[in-house]
C-alpha cells in the first residue's frame, strides 16, 4: 500500500543547480531546500580516508620539493643536476653521506653517480620533469578523451557506434609498440621538442578509457530526469550541458584523471628507462633508474633512491585516486 | 557465434595492413637510415648500399614489395644481424618471450585470484587489508625498479638465483624475470577478483544457494566463482597488450634474448624488416588472443549471445 | 513437532544490525507460532522487519553487520539458534525451505536449471546423478512446467519470470520440507501470474501437508491463503489473529489503517485512504509506541509509554494501549 506524506514533497537540490530553483518551484509548487553540496560531502568523505590524506600530503611534499629543491640545493652546496665536479678525485660514485676516504660528509645525502653528480639534485630535477610530463600528458589525454567521448555520447546514433568501434579496436592493440617506434624514429631537435613529442605520445596512449567513461556519463545524463525537467521548463541546451550535465559527469572524470597521472608517469618512466623518453642532458626518474640499474652490483644507491622516490609517488597518487573514487561515489568501486 | 568469429577473423587482415603501413611509414619518414653511423659514407658506397637493399626504387614500389612479402610471411633479412632472416630471429626469440609471459601470467592468475577471493571472503579483516596493500605496491613499484631490486637481493646478496641468464622453463633462471613481470598483474587481478567476488557474494542467488543448505565452501566454489571471475576474464584481453610492453623492460633488465629485446634494439638500429616483422607478429597475436578471450567470455556467461 | 502441536515456535526474537547510523533493531521481540499443516501470513510495510524475521529463522543473517541477539526458534523440539552451523545446514533446504521475492535474480544465471535442482537432492537425500535428474524432472512437472524433460537443461534466462518462480518452488519442495517460507513470492510478478503462483503454493501445500509462512505487504494475497496472520510494524508484532477475525474485527489502529487502505472497488468515488506519515527510522526508535506519530487514535500515553500486548480472545492479541476499545469498535462496525 502506498504511504505518502500529507505535506507537499520537498526537493533536495545542491547549490550548483540553484539557478533552476525558480523554474522548478513553479513546476511543482513545492518548497525547495538547498541541501549539502555534492562536493562538500565528497570532500568530507575524502578527508576521513587516512590513506588518501597521507597520499595527498606526500604528493604535495614531493611537488614542492621538486619545484624548489634544485634551486635550494644549488644555493646550499653549489650542485645542480648536471654539474660535474672539476676535481677528478670527485668524479666517481660515492655512497650517501660519504666523501672520498669514507668520512661522513653531508653534501650528498643520496650519494653521487659515476660522473660525480649529486643524486639528490638529480632526483629532484628528475621529479620536476616526471611530474610535468605526467601532468601535461594527462591534460592532453583529458582533452582528447573528453571531446571525443562527449561528442560520441551526445550525438549518439551511428556516429557514436563508429567512434566507439574505433576505440574498441585501439584498446585491444598494444599501440605502445607503435609509440615506441615513433619515439625511436623521430627524435626532435631540441629538448623542448622532445618533451612536446613525449606529451603527445603519452596523451595519445591513455585517452581511450577516458573517452569511454565520458561517453558513458554523457549518455546516461542525457536522459536523466532533471535534464527533462529543465527542458520542460524551457531551459536552453547550452545551459543544460553546462549547468546540469557537466557537474554530474565530472565525478568519474576527475577520478579517472587522477588515476591517469600515475599511469602516464609510469609510461614516461619506462620509456625513459629504455632510452626513448627523456634524454640527456635532462633527467627523469626513469632515466635515472636506467643509469642506476647498470651499476646495481657496485653502487646500488644509484637505483634505490630514484626508484623508491618514484614508487612512493606512484603509491601516493594511487591512494589519492582510490580515495577520490570512494569519496565521490562509494558505489563506483568496480576497480 | 560462428558468424561473429568469422567477422572478427576477417577484420584482422585490414588491421594488420594498417598497422604495418603505419609502422613502415614512420620508419621511412624518419631522418637517417640504418646504415648511418658515426662516419659519413662515401657517395659511391652509399649508392651501392641503397641498391643492394632496394632503397633506390621509388617509395610506392618499395611499399608494394613490403606488403607483398608480408602476405607471404616473408619479412626479409635483418639489416643488422648479418645473415639472419627475420623469420629465423622470430623463431628463436618467440619461445623465450612466450615462456616468460605465460609463466608470469599464470602465476599472476594463481596468486591474484586466490588472494582476491580470500580478501573478499574475509572482507575488512587483516587478510583483506594486507592483500590490498600489497596490491597497491604491485601497481606502484615500476617493474624496472622491482627487477633490479630483486636481483640485488636474491642474486647479488643471497646468491640464490642467477642475475641474468636464460635456461628456459623449469630452471631457476626464469624465477626473477617472471616474478618481476607478474607483479603488476597479481595486483590488478587481485583487485578485480576481490571486487568481483564481493559483488557476487551480495547477490540473491548466493542467498538461495545458502538457503539450500550448501556449505560456505560449496557456495563459493560452485556458485560464486564463476560470476566473480568474469572481470578477470575480460581483463585478460588488454592484459596481454600490457604484457608485451612489460616484457620489453623485463627482457632488457635481465638481458633475455626475447622478442622485446630484439624489438628495442631493432628500433635503435633502424632495422626495418625486423621492426615490421615483430610489429606484424605482435599485432596478429594480440588480435587473435582478444578474439579467444571474447569467445571464452561467451562460454562462461551463458547470457551472452553473439 | 514441538510438544504442544506447533511445528515452529518463535519466542522473543531479536535481530539487530550494526550500521554507520547506529544499531538498527530490525526485529525487536517478535513471537509467533506455526501449527502443523497451517499457513501463517506475515503482513507489513517495507521496513517492518518481516523479511529479516524470516531470514533469521534459517540463520541466513549476514553476521557482520547483523546478529541474532536473543530469543529462541524452536523447530521440532530443537532451538535452531543453539544448533551448530552444520546442523543448521542439514535443516536448510531439507526440513525448512525458502523461496524469495525476485525470481529474476534468485537463480544462478551461470548454471543450468538441472544442476541447480539436482544439487538439493544430491546433498540432502544422497541421490545419485541419475536419480537426482529424474526427481528434478518430476518436480518440474509437478509445478506445471511444460515439456520438463526437454527444458531442464536450459539456463534461467531462457525462462520467463513466472516460470522461474515455479522452478524456485520446485527447488524448494524437492526434499519435501515440513515448512515452506515464501518471502513475497509474487511481488515481482504480473498480476495474472501472481494468482497462478499462489494457487500452485496452495495446491502443493495441500498435497504435501507442509506448513507455510507467507510474507507479504499485500492484504489481498493473505486473505485467501492463510489461517493465521501476524501484522508487523517497526520490528514488532502489532497484532495477531486468525485470518477471518483479523479482517472482520481488527484490534489495532494500524491494522485498521491497513484495511482501510485497500481500495474497495464497490465504494463511492472518493479519496484513496493512506496512512499518513512514513515508517519510523529503525535506528532511532522512541521508547513509546512506534506507531504513535501516525496513529489517528494516539493519545498522550501512546507517546510516552510502550504499549502492552493485550490478549483479546484466545487466539487474538494486539499491541496497543487501547486494544480493547479498538476491538470493541470494530465489533460494532461489523
Summarize the structure.
The complex is a heterotrimer of chains A (335), B (306) and C (334). Chain A is an all-alpha fold. Chain A has helices spanning 21-28, 38-48, 50-77, 119-155, 157-172, 176-185, 191-222, 225-232, 237-274, 285-294, 301-328, and strands spanning 10-13, 31-34.
Write the layout of secondary structure elements.
The complex is a heterotrimer of chains A (335), B (306) and C (334).
Chain A: E1 10-13, H1 21-28, E2 31-34, H2 38-48, H3 50-77, H4 119-155, H5 157-172, H6 176-185, H7 191-222, H8 225-232, H9 237-274, H10 285-294, H11 301-328
Parallel strand pairs in A: 1-2
Chain B: H1 2-29, H2 43-52, H3 59-71, H4 86-121, H5 126-140, H6 143-157, H7 175-201, H8 204-211, H9 216-228, H10 230-253, H11 259-269, H12 272-300
Helix pairs in contact in B: 1-12, 4-5, 4-7, 4-10, 4-12, 5-7, 6-7, 6-10, 7-9, 7-10, 8-9, 10-11, 10-12, 11-12
Chain C: E1 6-19, E2 22-35, E3 39-43, H1 50-57, E4 66-75, E5 78-79, H2 85-91, E6 96-99, H3 103-106, H4 113-124, H5 129-142, H6 148-151, H7 161-173, E7 179-183, H8 191-208, E8 211-216, H9 219-225, E9 228-233, E10 236-242, H10 243-248, H11 253-261, H12 300-304, E11 309-313, E12 316-319, H13 323-333
Parallel strand pairs in C: 3-8, 3-9, 6-7, 7-8
Antiparallel strand pairs in C: 1-2, 1-4, 4-5, 9-10, 10-12, 11-12
Helix pairs in contact in C: 4-5, 4-7, 5-7, 7-8
Note the overall shape of chain B.
flat
Low-confidence sequence ranges of chain B: none
The structure class of chain A reads: mainly alpha
Topology of chain A as a string of helices (H) and strands (E): EHEHHHHHHHHHH
Structure description:
The complex is a heterotrimer of chains A (335), B (306) and C (334). Chain A is an all-alpha fold and 335 residues long. Chain A has eleven helices and two strands; from the N terminus they run E-H-E-H-H-H-H-H-H-H-H-H-H. In chain A, helix 2 (38-48) crosses helix 11 (301-328), helix 4 (119-155) runs parallel beside helix 7 and helix 8 runs antiparallel to helix 9. The two termini of chain A are 39 Å apart. Chain B contains twelve helices and no strands. Chain B is flat and about 85 Å long. The mean pLDDT of chain B is 84. Chain B is an all-alpha fold and 306 residues long. Chain B is 75% helix and 0% strand. Chain C has an eight-stranded mixed sheet, with helices on both faces. In chain C, helix 8 (191-208) links the parallel strand 7 (179-183) and strand 8. Chain C is globular and about 65 Å long. The chains are: A mainly alpha (335), B mainly alpha (306), C alpha/beta (334). Chain A binds chain C through residues 1-6, and chain C through 45, 217, 219, 258, 261-262, 274-279.
Amino acid at each position: 500500500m502506498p504511504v505518502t506524506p500529507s505535506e507537499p514533497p520537498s526537493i533536495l537540490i545542491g547549490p550548483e543547480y540553484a539557478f533552476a530553483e525558480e523554474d522548478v518551484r513553479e513546476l511543482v509548487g513545492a518548497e525547495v531546500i538547498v541541501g549539502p553540496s555534492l562536493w562538500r560531502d565528497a570532500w568530507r568523505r575524502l578527508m576521513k580516508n587516512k590513506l588518501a590524506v597521507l597520499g595527498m600530503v606526500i604528493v604535495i611534499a614531493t611537488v614542492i620539493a621538486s619545484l624548489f629543491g634544485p634551486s635550494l640545493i644549488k644555493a646550499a652546496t653549489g650542485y645542480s643536476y648536471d654539474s660535474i665536479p672539476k676535481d677528478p678525485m670527485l668524479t666517481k660514485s660515492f655512497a650517501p653521506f660519504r666523501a672520498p676516504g669514507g668520512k661522513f660528509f653531508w653534501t650528498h645525502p643520496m650519494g653521487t653517480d659515476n660522473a660525480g653528480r649529486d643524486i639528490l639534485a638529480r632526483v629532484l630535477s628528475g621529479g620536476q620533469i616526471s611530474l610535468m610530463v605526467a601532468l601535461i600528458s594527462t591534460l592532453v589525454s583529458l582533452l582528447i578523451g573528453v571531446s571525443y567521448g562527449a561528442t560520441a555520447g551526445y550525438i549518439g546514433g551511428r556516429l557514436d557506434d563508429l567512434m566507439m568501434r574505433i576505440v574498441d579496436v585501439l584498446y585491444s592493440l598494444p599501440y605502445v609498440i607503435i609509440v615506441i617506434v615513433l619515439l625511436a624514429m623521430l627524435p626532435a631537435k631540441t629538448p623542448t621538442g622532445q618533451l612536446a613529442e613525449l606529451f603527445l605520445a603519452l596523451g595519445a596512449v591513455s585517452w581511450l578509457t577516458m573517452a569511454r567513461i565520458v561517453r558513458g556519463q554523457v549518455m546516461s545524463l542525457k536522459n536523466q530526469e532533471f535534464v527533462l525537467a529543465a527542458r520542460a521548463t524551457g531551459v536552453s541546451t547550452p545551459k543544460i550541458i553546462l549547468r546540469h550535465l557537466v557537474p554530474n559527469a565530472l565525478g568519474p572524470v576527475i577520478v579517472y584523471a587522477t588515476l591517469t597521472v600515475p599511469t602516464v608517469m609510469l609510461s614516461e618512466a619506462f620509456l625513459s628507462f629504455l632510452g626513448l623518453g627523456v634524454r640527456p642532458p635532462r633527467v627523469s626518474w626513469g632515466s635515472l633508474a636506467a643509469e642506476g640499474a647498470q651499476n646495481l652490483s657496485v653502487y646500488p644507491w644509484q637505483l634505490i633512491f630514484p626508484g623508491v622516490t618514484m614508487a612512493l609517488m606512484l603509491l601516493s597518487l594511487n591512494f589519492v585516486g582510490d580515495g577520490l573514487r570512494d569519496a565521490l561515489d562509494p558505489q563506483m568501486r568496480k576497480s | 557465434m560462428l558468424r561473429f568469429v568469422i567477422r572478427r577473423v576477417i577484420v584482422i587482415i585490414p588491421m594488420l595492413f594498417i598497422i604495418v603501413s603505419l609502422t613502415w611509414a614512420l620508419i621511412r619518414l624518419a631522418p637517417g637510415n640504418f646504415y648511418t653511423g658515426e662516419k659519413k659514407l662515401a657517395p659511391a658506397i652509399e649508392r651501392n648500399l641503397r641498391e643492394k637493399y632496394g632503397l633506390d626504387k621509388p617509395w610506392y614500389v618499395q611499399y608494394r614489395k613490403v606488403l607483398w612479402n608480408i602476405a607471404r610471411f616473408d619479412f626479409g633479412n635483418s639489416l643488422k644481424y648479418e645473415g639472419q632472416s627475420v623469420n629465423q630471429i622470430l623463431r628463436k626469440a618467440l619461445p623465450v618471450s612466450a615462456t616468460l609471459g605465460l609463466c608470469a601470467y599464470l602465476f599472476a592468475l594463481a596468486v591474484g585470484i586466490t588472494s582476491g577471493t580470500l580478501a573478499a571472503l574475509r572482507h575488512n579483516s587483516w587478510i583483506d587489508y594486507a592483500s590490498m596493500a600489497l596490491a597497491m605496491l604491485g601497481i606502484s613499484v615500476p617493474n624496472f625498479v622491482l627487477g633490479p631490486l630483486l636481483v640485488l637481493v636474491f642474486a647479488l646478496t643471497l646468491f640464490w638465483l642467477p642475475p641474468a641468464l636464460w635456461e628456459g622453463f623449469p630452471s631457476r633462471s626464469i624465477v626473477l624475470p617472471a616474478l618481476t613481470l607478474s607483479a603488476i598483474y597479481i595486483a590488478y587481478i587481485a583487485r578485480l577478483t576481490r571486487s568481483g567476488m564481493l559483488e557476487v557474494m551480495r547477490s540473491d542467488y548466493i542467498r538461495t544457494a545458502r538457503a539450500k543448505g550448501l556449505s560456505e565452501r560449496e557456495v563459493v566454489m560452485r556458485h560464486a566463482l564463476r560470476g566473480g571471475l568474469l572481470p578477470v576474464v575480460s581483463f585478460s584481453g588488454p592484459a596481454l597488450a600490457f604484457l608485451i610492453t612489460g616484457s620489453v623492460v623485463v627482457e632488457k633488465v635481465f638481458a633475455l634474448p626475447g622478442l622485446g629485446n630484439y624489438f628495442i634494439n631493432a628500433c635503435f638500429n633502424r632495422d626495418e624488416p625486423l621492426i615490421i616483422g615483430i610489429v606484424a607478429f605482435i599485432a596478429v597475436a594480440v588480435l587473435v588472443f582478444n578474439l579467444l578471450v571474447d569467445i571464452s567470455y561467451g562460454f562462461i556467461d551463458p547470457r551472452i549471445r553473439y | 513437532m514441538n510438544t504442544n502441536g506447533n511445528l515452529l515456535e518463535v519466542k522473543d526474537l531479536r535481530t539487530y544490525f550494526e550500521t554507520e547510523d547506529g544499531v538498527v533493531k530490525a526485529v525487536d521481540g517478535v513471537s509467533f507460532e506455526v501449527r502443523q499443516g497451517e499457513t501463517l501470513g506475515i503482513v507489513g510495510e517495507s521496513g517492518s522487519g518481516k523479511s529479516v524475521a524470516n531470514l533469521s529463522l534459517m540463520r541466513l543473517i549476514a553476521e557482520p553487520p547483523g546478529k541474532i541477539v536473543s530469543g529462541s526458534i524452536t523447530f521440532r523440539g530443537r532451538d535452531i539458534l543453539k544448533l551448530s552451523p552444520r546442523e543448521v545446514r542439514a535443516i536448510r533446504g531439507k526440513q525448512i525451505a525458502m523461496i524469495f521475492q525476485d525470481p529474476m535474480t534468485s537463480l544462478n544465471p551461470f548454471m543450468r536449471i538441472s544442476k541447480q535442482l539436482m544439487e538439493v537432492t544430491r546433498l540432502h537425500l544422497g541421490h545419485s546423478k541419475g536419480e537426482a535428474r529424474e526427481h528434478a524432472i518430476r518436480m518440474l512437472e509437478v509445478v506445471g512446467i511444460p515439456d520438463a524433460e526437454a527444458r531442464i537443461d536450459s539456463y534461467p534466462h531462457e525462462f520467463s519470470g513466472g516460470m522461474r518462480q515455479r522452478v524456485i518452488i520446485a527447488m524448494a519442495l524437492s526434499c519435501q520440507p515440513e515448512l515452506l517460507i515464501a518471502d513475497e513470492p509474487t511481488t515481482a510478478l504480473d498480476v495474472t501470474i501472481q494468482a497462478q503462483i499462489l494457487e500452485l503454493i496452495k495446491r502443493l501445500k495441500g498435497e504435501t501437508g507442509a506448513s507455510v509462512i507467507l510474507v507479504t505487504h499485500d492484504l489481498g494475497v493473505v486473505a485467501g491463503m492463510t489461517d493465521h496472520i501476524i501484522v508487523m510494524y517497526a520490528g514488532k508484532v502489532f497484532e495477531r489473529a486468525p485470518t477471518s477475525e483479523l479482517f472482520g474485527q481488527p484490534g489495532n489502529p494500524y491494522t485498521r489503517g491497513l484495511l482501510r487502505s485497500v481500495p474497495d472497488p464497490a465504494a463511492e468515488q472518493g479519496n484513496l485512504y493512506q496512512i499518513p506519515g512514513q515508517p519510523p527510522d529503525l535506528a532511532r526508535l522512541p521508547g513509546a509506541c512506534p506507531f504513535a506519530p501516525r496513529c489517528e487514535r494516539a493519545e498522550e500515553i501512546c507517546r510516552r509509554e510502550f504499549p502492552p500486548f493485550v490478549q483479546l480472545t484466545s487466539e487474538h492479541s494486539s499491541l496497543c494501549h487501547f486494544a480493547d476499545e479498538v476491538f470493541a469498535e470494530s465489533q460494532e462496525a461489523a
